[in-house]
Amino acid sequence: MIPIHTYKGRRVAVFGLGRTGIAAGKALEAGGAEVSSWDDSETARANAEAAGIHLDDLNRRDWGDIAALVLSPGIPLTHPKPHRMVELAKSVGAPVIGDIELFAQTIAELPERRRPKIIGVTGTNGKSTTSALIGHILRETGRNAIVAGNIGDAILAQDPPRPGSYYVLELSSYQIDLTQSLECDVAVLLNISPDHLDRHGGFDGYFAAKKRLFEMQNTQGVAIIGIDDDETNGFYSTLRQRRREDQIVPISAGRVFARGVYALGDRVYDALDSASHPLVDLSGAQALPGRHNAQNVAAALAAVRMLGIGGRAAADAIASFGGLPHRQEIVANEGGVRFVNDSKATNAEAALQAINCYNDIFWIAGGRAKEDGLEALEPALHRIRKAYLIGEAQDLFADELDGKVSWQKCGDLAKAIIAAREDTQGVPGAVVLLSPAAASFDQFKSFEDRGDAFSRLVHENGAASMAAGGAG
Fold this sequence. Notes:
Layout: E1 11-15, H1 19-30, E2 34-38, H2 42-50, E3 66-71, H3 84-91, E4 96-97, H4 99-108, E5 117-122, H5 127-140, E6 144-149, E7 165-170, H6 173-177, E8 186-189, H7 197-200, H8 203-215, E9 222-226, H9 230-240, E10 248-252, E11 260-264, E12 267-271, E13 277-281, H10 290-306, H11 311-319, E14 329-334, E15 337-341, H12 348-355, E16 361-366, E17 368-369, E18 384-390, H13 394-401, E19 407-411, H14 413-423, E20 431-434, E21 438-439, H15 447-471
Parallel strand pairs: 1-2, 1-3, 3-4, 5-7, 5-8, 6-7, 8-9, 9-10, 10-11, 15-20, 16-18, 16-20, 18-19
Antiparallel strand pairs: 11-12, 12-13, 14-15, 17-21
């Protein structure tokens, strides 16, 4: 745990008792704060009490002594409208912050020589893989690296910072919204496409949240920017006018430039110190398929190179990276038919990255639809043999796909897997791909829960099919 001493002797409200809220409450108490913790969910309150959190109903107490509100990232801050807890905090002049801001304040209190290095990774897609890959390279090259934030355990549940350590933070727009003072030594923006628009009041608000990660950097901070999107390319051009050349590094999965890191096909090129040269060969990297992962590798390579790690050592570490669960994770291979869990693809842009990696796809999609639907998938629909639609979005997705792709409404994941398995018989090289292009919250607790269910059902149904075949 990282004790938070900033609010020692003062009362702090913590609202939202998931993993980050529980960790924040404990860290504040360890640092001497008086903590009032609450969640409107009875289940969340029970879990928090079991974890040792003392509850205090923030709906009923006087807020006059509240010094700050620590808000769970998933609770509305400004849009569609501020949560009532946010309004209560504003009424008494208490700042509304998140656990990342508590971490930032703690780092800022340390003497310069004792501060760890901070690497922040944001963007619409690829954050988790890039963050995990940076952490993997750092560990493989002998560094003490902690990967946290929007991935893994809460940041405040980690070991206290010590000199020479590295914190790699995956940061969502929600988390950045609640952060005011995080100074990243290296900040990474991978890409941007419309997402979470209701939470930010539109695309401009969403992009503004991402850009704030760079506005918080000090004069020595390095910015790594993916330039394959028009919006991020424009932001890169803006930063070039404000920063020295050695403080900003472009990355790309297809564009060549004089200085930076870029990928062409399966090769990733380092053009940071001298003439461009190929450094990483992704042709055999099963955990990193597709153009989007080439961009992720370029970003991770640029980040660690700017932290002083040699190119060859970084390339060797990348070669041993095993990938992440729920990101194009091969969970079974039955007679040449691969079952791929890409449950993390909660929007069409993310699903497009996976679909572009395969042919003869039997695609399982659906859940709680995002605003932009499936429009982004139009260029890749020819790769899909048939779609199996589930969840709240199945009617909407059927309308969007009608006349373009053969589809079947299945309702739930188990029925979709059974139908897809039957249809792939006699199709060698087929891929049953769960890449939902939708959120999971209609039928599952999280994308991880959905991906775990997919893996379990694939194996259960596969075993049942083999037993039935053997009995016949």
